Amino acid sequence: MRGELKTGLVVVATVLVIIVVGTVGYTLIEGWGLLDSLFMTVTTIFTVGFGEVHPLDPGGVIFTLVLIVLGVGTILFGIGRMVEFVIGGQLSGVFRRRVVRRQVDKLDTHFMVCGYGRVGEAVARHFKIHSAPLVVVDSDPDNVARAERDGFLAVCGDATKDDILQTAGVERAKGLVAALGSDADNIFLTLSARVLNPKLLIVARAGSEDTVSKLVRAGADNVVSPYGIGGKQIATLMLKPLVSDYLEVVTGGGELEFRVEELELKGDCCSIGRSIEDMGVRSKTGATILAVRRASTGAFETNPAPGVHLMNGDRIIAIGTPEQILKLEELMMAPAGRTGS
Length: 341
Description:
By secondary structure, this protein is of the alpha/beta class. It has helices at residues 2-29, 34-45, 58-105, 118-129, 141-149, 162-167, 183-196, 210-218, 226-239, 241-250, 276-279, 281-285, 322-332, and strands spanning 111-114, 134-138, 153-156, 175-178, 201-205, 222-224, 259-264, 288-293, 300-302, 315-320.
């Protein structure tokens, strides 16, 4: 944009210089008055089509030819750049949207962040840390451009509209974060997304406590109040600073990188029907199982004993370094008849 503006100013300045030079030239070469010289110069470089003000001498004819080449060439160049800026910008925008659409169409079980404000941007950064596939949806072109600069696929449009959600692949998405600017928009977004994808995991942002129950009724699986979370974190920092430091490490914000992950046991996993002790989780992987959520009851068994048997559909929540979590996944998810190393 700045480059095009600079080019436009240069073209205008050049035309003005040519008008001044032409006026002075006709005055000196033909001896005309200032008004006649200015009129002749303007009609010549803008190709209006009037005849000569006075008959031209050979020197005046040559000067007119040079003036036509310089003036008309400069004006045509300026018009060309202006047309290129207008049409080229539109075409590049259409092309970019088509490229994004094709890339989104290839995604499956991805995540969506609707609203790229302060909350949405912070959420997107954490998705990027975990290399999770993500599509950002925002109605503000500036926010969309910022999301693209940050390395995310971005769709420009109203996230409360079904067609925009479908463009972002909501029917194939795994989860959606409703982080729009108003609670009303987040409620409407949650309703729309839930209808389009009943299995979608929806986490919504609430600006006030009164909105939490409404978002839950609209279909949100979880509702988060940034102000409430911020207040809890501040209180923890004051009352239990060591606990806060530990949680910062666990969530990957400290110098040591730990991850808390969940694994679902299903199919022919070799760990189904066996106990944690039999699998040798700690000795073989170094990871620690924090809890087991039973598929049969939905209840959590926190700090499970070594003798706890794992069943089909159970979800394991474990903590460890990325390498330890990878070893745990290989151990627990290996097909029956083969165990991880």
